[in-house]
Each structure stands twice: as structure tokens, then as C-alpha cells.
Amino acid sequence: MGRDPRYDILFEPVRIGPVIAKNRFFQVPHCNGMGHVRPQGHAAMRGVKAEGGWGVVSTEEVEIHPSSDVAPYIEGRLWDDRDVPALNLMTQAIHRHGALAAIELVHAGMNASNLYSREVAIAPSHIANPATYVPAQARGMRKSDIRDYKRWHRDAALRARGAGFDIVYVYAGHSLSLPMHFLQSRYNHRTDEYGGSLGNRTRLLREIIEETKEAVGGECAVAVRIAVDELMGPAGIQHDGEGRDIVEMLAELPDLWDVNVSDWANDSQTSRFAQEGFQEEFVRFVKTVTTKPVVGVGRFTSPDTMVSQVRRGVLDFIGAARPSIADPFLPRKIDSGEVDDIRECIGCNVCVSGDYTMTPIRCTQNPTMGEEWRKGWHPEFVPPRTGNDTFLIVGAGPTGLECARMLGRRGYTVHVAEALDVLGGRVTREAALPGLAAWGRVRDYRVNQLNKMQNVDIFRSSRVTADDIVEFGAARVVLATGARWRRDGVGRANTAPIPGFEKGDQVLTPDDMLGQAAPTRRFSGPVVVYDDDHYYLGAILAEKLHLAGNTVTLVTPADRVSSWTVNTLEQPIIQKRLMELGVIIVMNQTISAFDGSRVTLACTYTGRESSVPAAAILSLTSRLPNDELYEELVGMQESVTAAGIVSLTPIGDCLAPGTIAAAVYSGHRHAREFDKEPSDEVPFRRELPLII
Ligand code: ADP
Ligand code: SF4
Q1: Which ligand has the minimum distance to the alpha carbon of residue 624?
Q2: How far, in Å, CA of 54 to CA of 60, rounded?
Q3: Domains with residue ranges and CATH for the chain
Q4: CB of 616 closer than 6 angstroms to any ligand 1 atom
């Protein structure tokens, strides 16, 4: 199949200063939790993007100096020449596939914790570190510090060129770098020629661009990444105010403009809060004030939207971080007419959680992300089958569907039995919740792939029993039967059942509220949502109950709503939404009892008790695996063996309930690894320090 001519425009080469990108697909900088600590894993991950057809592949933030140490976060590092070989691994991996390599040089200024280097952070003016609540302050820079910073940036640019980069970024984005801090009047209180008027506040950025061009401009393009709006009104930079003025002042100076909104949480909004292409209204002015190419982002996964962005003169390059994570082969699939096969990003920001938890990146849609080097997993190529075993997979949730997809691709004969007439398990149920429709892509991508495979069949409306399984006679049985929410209150905070939670239909779990057959009830009195789960579901269900006309109190043992969503950049938005709706929020409290009309609360610090009225409780504490079928089969070992079943394996939520990302990973892993010899060895390659 060939490329649809409508998409030809996306494959036009574009000149960026002294270099030429082979097409308009631009993987913009993104964090990955590997950075300078795991350079081989990092290089392999970027190399796969280049192989997948991205014309430009960028690093994440790369620290240019020990006073820009963002520990404990793991980013790139280019402090001196000894950091060059690690980055050179990456440029080689990118160049091997004909892409350009870009590096985002960063001095984090007041955002540098310097917890590792113990240097003193620097800023336009004396200021307390605003981002991380590190008990430290940045000192206001003297003129000599500005000279030092410019020299460090220039040296880093020269090293970047030496490492093989084609594009060198000057970074003034996300409120995370010195040039941006100088632009922001709330941080820049200087009275010299670097402060005061916008022209003065832009001086440092201008000088850095000029000096970077002078240092490496002959060979490398110099790009500027800049936030044109901070989405905070007149308190910050605005696209129809200073944002526009800055771009106008510097219009022809860089070779490329990479423009977005700030801060990171605004830029990388989840699908729950922002649609594909949502940044257009903020960035579209840029192309009207410069002749230089412009790249922008917006979680673009649809080639039609991409073409529209280019044809309407909004962008020259389709910038992508998350769409390139979910499908590193997105450009190649468009090029070869396989648009249908694109694994579209669902906008969940599980990828971001890798950065926030300082661990290698992971992705809900793409289980190979971060595993390219350490497990040798490729997103498109899979090892062929090693035998003739037939598989029966019970359950078509994200685990079962991914396991079937991978086994099918390996060439095995696979049968999937699903109790319901709809596929997708929890994904289908949760995608019906407000704002989560895009999560259905986890199901849709896999079902679409499975429908094309002759060697996989799916039986819907087929709830199987242990006897059915024995009778079926597949050699390998995989139990992907999912999990259910506990009704007794046992979870993180309560390790024993909560007295009163046995009260019939007054205590609900998410299982009672999810799915089409479960309209949201209006209760006779207030509803208490007890969220000891701390991810997205408690807040969404509280919102749903509120919208159905209930008075809702959300009780959580945590000190904030949906506390884990700090790692997906959503927490402040979620809490704000509930507060604005009028949901009552009670934090730092556990529920110790329910008498049918009130719940007793206990303070997590003092144990002091109080109570709130409750006609019903929605309890999200923990889940139990649906492993009864598995246990029954284990108990019928003789018949199982007689039926020729050689393995019985629970995977995904049936093994241990977790995220959808973990479910997909589990299904994928089983399909790749079931035929490996069991071993006690560490199940992946590690990057160990060199002792010198
Ligand atoms: P996971 O996240 O691990 O994929 P889910 O709960 O999303 O788990 O999906 C499990 C699927 O298994 C559900 O669609 C459920 O209907 C199905 N299932 C559970 N028990 C059986 C059974 N005995 N026979 C067939 N399907 C089952
Ligand atoms: Fe998209 Fe979620 Fe994957 Fe991130 S983790 S790339 S948001 S699907």
C-alpha cells in the first residue's frame, strides 16, 4: 500500500538554517527518566523514533553546568567533555536512519535544585526556588555571572556539535530556564540593561541566540523553544501581548521557532482536559511574524489534522512528544498508507510519570517504550513463534487484547474468550466516564489489529468455566480475567474491614457505577466518596455523582485529591475542578465506621474522630484479582494435564491489579517471554557505573 497523496505535504523536506529535515515530523524534546543515567537505553529509544520516520529527533532538557543540576530528576547532561560520548551514542542512533539530531541546552536557573552538585542556583534576581520547595534560594546574577552563563552555553553548544548534533536549542520555555526567567517580569526585578523594559528583559535571550549562532551556526541550526503564553492572564506572558512582542523582536534571528504554552502542565495537558491541536489559538501568530520555520505541538495523531495545520499556515513542522512515544513509527505508517495501524496516544500522561518518579519512561499504548535496549523490545518487529502451541486467552480487557495481539503477530494460533458482548474490559467501562473517551483507543487499536489476523479468533459473550477450558484443549491457557473493587474498605489506610461497610446497597464500588447498564443514581441524602486509591477514578466518580444531583463529600487519607496525579500533571486541575463544582473535600482523614447515616472519620495525624452525614458511600480502596477460575484450574491438575494443557498463567489485573499501562505491559510481556527458560537472572540489561 502506498501513501495517500493528501499526505504528501507532510513528507516535504524543510530547510532549517544550514541543515535540511527530510520531512515535517519533528520529535520535540521530551523527558524520559533515562537521560544521562541510562545513556544506552536513551540512545536506543531515540534511535527507534528515527527508524520510525521522524525527520528530527530531540533530546530532553540537557543541563549545561553543575549549577543547573535538577536532581533528583534525570535529564540529559553536558557539563564537560566527559558527557560527550554518551550523547554521541544517541546522535549515531538517530543518524543511522537519516534523521536530524537536536539537543535542548538548558540552564535551569532558579529551578535547579543543585541537590547533587551543591552549587548555588542563579536567577535574574534573588528568589526562592518556586518549583520544588527546595529549602534554598537562588542568588541574583551579577554581570559577571551573566558573562559566565553565556560562556557555559557557548561551550555546551560546541560540545553538542562535537557530539554530532545538527540542531542546537536555546531554551526559553516552560518557566524552566534562565532566558525565560529573564523574560518574566515577576522573576526579573533587575534595574540594569537586563531588566525593566521588555527590550531589556529580552536582551539575554537575544545574546544567547547570537552567540550560539556564532559558535556553531555554520554547521548546526539554532532553534529557540519559547513559551508564547503562560495561561495565567496578565500575570504572565501572553500570546497577544509580550509573547508576540518577543517573537517579533527576534523574528529572523533563530533558524527555527519551537513554540508552545507554559508551564509543562499547560503544555502537556491530558485528553481529559484538552483536545488535539488545542494550542493553535496561542501559537498561530508566530508564522505571521517570521519567515523561519515553526514547530508546535498539540498531541497530533491524525494526519488530516497535521495536513490542515501546514496548509492553513499554522505550523511548518508537526511537533510531537507523546504521539511519538505511543507510536514511534507514526510517520512511516502514514508514508506507507497504514494510517489505520497508528497506535494513537490516549493522552493519559503515564509517560510523564516516569520523569516524576525518576524511572525509565513507560507508555500505556506502547509497552516497548523504555524497553528498547534493556529488553531488546522493538515496537514493530517481534520474534517469530518458537513452537506450535495453541493459546486460549480468557478475558479481552487491555491485558488479554495485547497478549492476543502479540501472540498473533508472532504467528501463534490464539483463541480469546470474553464473557461480555463488548471487548476492552475496564478500558471500555472507564472510557465512558466524563473526559476519558480517548482511552477507548487502547481497545480500538488492538481490536483493529486482531481483526486483521487469520490466526486469532475472538468469542464474545462467552463466559468460560474451568470445565469449558479443560474441554477446549488449548495447550496454553492465559487468564486475563481482571479484578474487582473491594467492598469492605480494606486498602492502604484501612488494613481491616471497616465496620458498617457490609451494609447492603448503601456501600457502592466503582464496579456499580461503570458500564452502560449502570446509570448514576440520585441518592436520598449526601454521598461520601472514600478515595484511598489516589489516582483518577475517585475524583471522576465524585464529579459524576455531583452532576447527577447528589451532594458529594470526597474523603481521602491523602493531603490532596487524586494525589498520584501529581505525576501526570493533572492534580491541580482535578482538585480545582472539584472545588469549583462544589464537591466538599475532606483531606487527611480515614473512615473508621459507617452506621447507615453517618461515617466516622479519624484524622491521619492525631486519630481525633469526627463524623459527616452519608446516605451512601462510594468506596475506592483496593481491588482483588478475579483469580477464582485460575485457582479452580490449579485444583484440577489431573484433568488439566490430561487435557494437554502445559501452562496456566494469570496475567494483568488477574495477577495483581494495577494501571492500564501495567495491564498492557503484562499482556505484552507474557506473549514475548512465555517461551523463555525460567531463570533467577535480572530480567533486563542494566547500565552499571564504570568504576574508575
Ligand atoms: P485487565 O485490565 O487485566 O485486562 P479487565 O478487567 O479490563 O482486566 O478485563 C478482564 C476481562 O475478562 C473482562 O472483560 C471480563 O468480562 C472478562 N472475563 C472475566 N471472567 C471471564 C470468564 N470466566 N470468561 C470470559 N471472560 C471473562
Ligand atoms: Fe500518550 Fe499515555 Fe503513552 Fe503518554 S503514556 S504517550 S499520554 S498513551
Answers
A1: 1
A2: 16
A3: 5-356 (3.20.20.70), 390-482+626-673 (3.40.50.720), 486-624 (3.50.50.60)
A4: no
